[in-house]
Amino acid sequence: MFDSFSNKISSIFEKLYKSGILKESDVDAALREIRVALLEADVSLEVARKFIGDVKEKAIGQSVIRSISPGQMMTKIVHDHLIELLGRSAPPEISRRPHKIMILGLQGAGKTTTVGKLARFFSKKDKKIVTASADIYRPAAVEQLRVLTRKIDGVIFAPTKESISQICESAIETTKNENADILIMDTAGRLHIDELKMNELQQIQEAINPHEIFLVVDIMTGQDALNIARKFRETVPISGIILTRVDGDARGGVALSLRAITGCEIKFLCTGEQLDDIEFFDAERIASRLLGMGDIISLVEKAQESFTKEETDEAMKKLQSGSFTFDDLALQMEKMSKLGGLKTILKMLPQSKQLEQMMDSRNVSDKTIVKNLAIIKSMTIKEKRNYKLLNGSRRRRIAVGSGTTVPDVNKLIKQYENSLIFFKKIKKNGLGKTMFTMGR
Questions:
Q1: Cα(58)–Cα(52) distance, rounded to whole angstroms?
Q2: What residues contact 49, with CB distance under 8 A and at least 6 apart?
Q3: In sequence order, what are the residues at sequence separation of 6 or more whose Cβ sits closer than 8 angstroms to the Cβ of residue 16?
Q4: Rounded to whole angstroms, what are the CA distances from 100 to 123, 130, 206, 233, 435?
Q5: Residue 164: closest CA among 132, 140, 211
Q6: 391 contacts: CB under 8 Å, gap ≥ 6
Q7: How many Å apart are CA 393 and CA 243, to the nearest integer?
Q8: pTM over 0.90
Q9: Which of 32, 267, 284, 292 is the least buried, fewest Cβ under 10 Å from its Cβ?
Q10: Model pLDDT, residue 364
């Protein structure tokens, strides 16, 4: 979502770091570049102008020019103002049972899928969920939500009824009967803002009395998202916004404008097509990612969801004992893919731009993982367990079976061998001595 903007901002601050002592003209030039980057990212002119004005005022007040580390000081000021612009959203508090959430938005924004993702998000926090669909116009929407609900353990789909009022009654009754923690109510999508369907939203709101009303906005709509949010907020009291398709190639600046223009906080980001691809919107973490400072906390949280401590300990034991097989390696690769792939992981690390460039120079990408998985799957059970069986003829057979080349197979085997050697040395000498001897 913010790739282009983040790259430009990182380049601007690289210049500031290299400059050492900054003159006022250097700061002005950097702010002009940041302003252009904001506008190119689709941030509204009003928001961009105020942002630059606030940063400049703070920069001069903090004596950035005379600072010991002017580049770092400037980065901190921009970082703090980005957080202020994005807003510090608090995680949803499920203090009342049942906690009722109403979802609305334009047709095609991804509302129904978002309901499924929210259900998955809360179910992982040991909450019992009921989902319901108040879309009486599109039968496929009802069936889609029913299918999504079946995929999530502990989530119940409320029975469908003929009228809006009956659907709301059924949803509340099901929630009470199931002793559920949360009710998530989907609503009909709108191709445009029309009075009839807006009145319908008010009817649903009055019937279920939701604690939260989330507007789902497709990031690809750009500046139109601001007008959409305004219109919906005139009808119902929206408590938060969920952005979808943030993994696409949209410029993403609308996310920086939404709160400032509408007053609505962004609550969640939908980062992909899978049910697990949703994350709480944390302004501080997003601001850090934008400035190339990484987001280690989010990476650790994602890793904890994919890798249990027992699995990690078992993998380490196998590596150190030399019993780590190609099957184990394939499992680790698949887990990494669940984290979002190399690109997603790199974005959460400090100096992600430099790391991406290094990976590109070595032709390492998510395609490499796919290729390596294909190679491993083309091995026999014995070959996976004992790589020493992999002679020339076997390697040629594996290359043909996986649609790769013999050099590709050789490269993977070499990496595997190096990993075993590295971890055996760690067991014998400890990490510090191993790193020293291997670096000589």
A1: 10
A2: 35
A3: 22, 26, 30, 70, 71, 74, 75
A4: 15, 10, 12, 18, 54
A5: 132
A6: none
A7: 52
A8: no
A9: 32
A10: 60
Q: Which domains does the chain have, with CATH numbers?
A: 3-86 (1.20.120.140), 99-293 (3.40.50.300), 299-438 (1.10.260.30)
Nearest Cα to 247, choosing from 219, 287, 286, 281?
219
What is the token pair recorded at 81? 């103002």
> Over the stretch 146-203, which tens digit does the pLDDT of each residue have?
999 999 988 999 988 889 999 999 999 999 999 999 999 999 887 666 777 788 899 9
Determine how many CB atoms are found less than 10 A away from the CB of residue 439.
6
Average pLDDT, the chain: 81
Are 109 and 103 in contact, with CB atoms under 8 Å apart?
Answer: no
d(CA 241, CA 244): 10
Give the burial string for 37-52 (b: 16+ CB within 10 Å, else e). Answer: bbbebbbbeebbeebb
Radius of gyration of the chain, Cα coordinates, nearest whole angstrom: 26
Partner residues linked to 243 by β-bridges = 217, 269
Region 411-429: what's the mean pLDDT?
A: 74
Main-chain phi, psi angles of 408, to 5 degrees: -65, -45
Strand, coil or helix: 167: helix
